[in-house]
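Recall from the previous lesson that a structure prediction takes nothing but the amino acid sequence as input. Here we apply that procedure to Cytochrome c from Enhygromyxa salina. The sequence below is the only information supplied.
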Amino acid sequence: MGPRTSLASASLLSLAALALGIGLGSSDAEGRQVKMPIQEMDQMMFEEPMMGGFGVAIAQFRLNDMPLGGTAAPTLAPHVGSHGGTLALDRHGVLALDRDSGKLVRTSRKGDHLASLDFAAGAGEMVRDGTSDLVYVADRQAHRVVRVRAGASSFDVLDRAELREPHGLALSPDGETLYVTSVADHELVAFDTETMFPRWRVELAAEPRGVAVSADGQHAIVGFLTTGAVANVELGTSPNVSYVALDPAHRVNTDPFSGALVDSGPVLVDVGVAPGHSPSLADTKDVGLRFARNAYAVGYIGDDLAIVPHQLSTPHLPTSGFENTGSYGGGGGFTAPITHRMAMIDAENSFAPSTAFAEIGVHQPRALAYDAADDTLYLAGYGNDQVMAVAEVSQASIHMAWVTTVPSPTGCGPDGLAVEGDELFVHCELDRSLVRLDLSTVASAGVPSARQVGAALGPSSRSPAAQRGAELFRRGQDTRVSTGGFMACASCHAEGRTDGLSWRIEGHNLQTPLLAGRVVGTHPFKWDGKDKDLPTSLTNTVGRLGGSGLTANEVRDLQAFLESLPQPLAPTVDSADSIARGQALFESAETACSACHDGPQLADGVQHDLATNIGSVDTPSLIGLAHTAPYYHDGSARTLRALLTDKGSVHDMGDTAHLDDRQLDDLIAYLESL
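The prediction returns the following tokens.
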């Protein structure tokens, strides 16, 4: 197995050897598995990813558990259309759904543009029917799913179905059912592909994204931005949803059996209580807990094993004697606050699915493709432009075959992969291009050769400044942005949204705010209102992340990008009367909500003393409130009902104690409609 052997045996002693200039050897490869083309240091094994004198010490690929596969090659492969994405290969060439330009583009495999079809910018996924020329597109911003016949040089729109903010798509093995996730309404909806009428819908947790269907057609999995789990859906006429946790069971830097901090000494938790004020439970309860986030792309590999690449966040690292207040997460300055993993799930037993995890070096994984012919999984990192090949992924001999960086003069941001034979195509969201990786060169060169094919797929919908800002916003492994380059802006604010966590920042635990639709006209910024404007806040945030800093022009580019983001869509509400009653309560003198939350952004720009652990708190905007749980500056109110019934850490805001259950329901309906 060559590289896997060295990967599994490397130790801290090996790191010391590297410091002395002594290289680690790796055995020769078999087939496409060749001598690793990356630094051996990247293959080191650490109990936790470390930051130190060497900069970043994190495994490119490391198994944390026993593999779920057997010793033989898989006998069951996923069908074409088992999951969606932004790229597909068919008998006519390449299909690319370019989210920035809002175009579905047909190209040849050499990159020649043959046809295009316009959609709204910010589309979701597309999925191809493997038995025909049919393609389905989630036109996310236009609230519709479109059925298209994709010919060699033309597109024909055949039908469409209305659905609020569709994103993820997958087809049943027989092609008769299309499964779609709704971001705004937190649903999975099954459509009859012939009539485009819905067959059923089931409620999901918040922020669903990708969906995939098993080869036997019995199960689907759904990934989420903020849930910390993957939905396992038993399909049929009466679907059933259960959840498989992705969050680790034990706390970081602690013994998994006793829960004690591994490093001796008392755990330092400085809650930073302002004089005369009370500490927040949120400052202590999440110490060392890790949370799975940003599970965009999901899929199945051989023998119906599910794959869920995702981010792992530790918002409050435990410390022993020293807290690093110059970075997010606190801690002693040695443990990474964010890493990335790949979950492998065997859901054959729906009551107790088996799981295994592997750390991966691709930053912000947002695309995957599986080649059943040689049991290889390909993953792409939106944050660092890396593509990784994981060989024999469905077997006990799983290992990383190679990793490479997609070439792009301005940054790629890969959000789509498609593989067939010796061709692996990459869709670059940031420069709207296609890149072809030639897998036939791996045996001789160690990595595939890569080249951009064709011109840009379409014009950007962003201004030049916003386009540059988008590239900065997603950029991982950049020490100008964060300590060790572990964190990007998009790590906590994917799509400009919120990760639903409260991060340890400068001695306090502070909830991640929503950015999309909330940064224009809402100054000052930061929970205490100490950042007077957006450029100041962005500059200070990079400093709080531990980054070395951005130029003034780069800060302006980030500002342009953030100001271009649309606000999240509110969920569908069945009763307009309930919203109207809730608005009346909100604006009434008895609740006094609108006394502070007023104006077009529902914020007065004033700091109020609410007896919190950070002193006065700036009034936050309520735009997109349905998508921003938990609530308050410290995330101590998990739901809007908890907030309105005085179950968070803040007790002097508004007057809702007298409201009955119906009035609370009405007020919540109004708040979620904002």
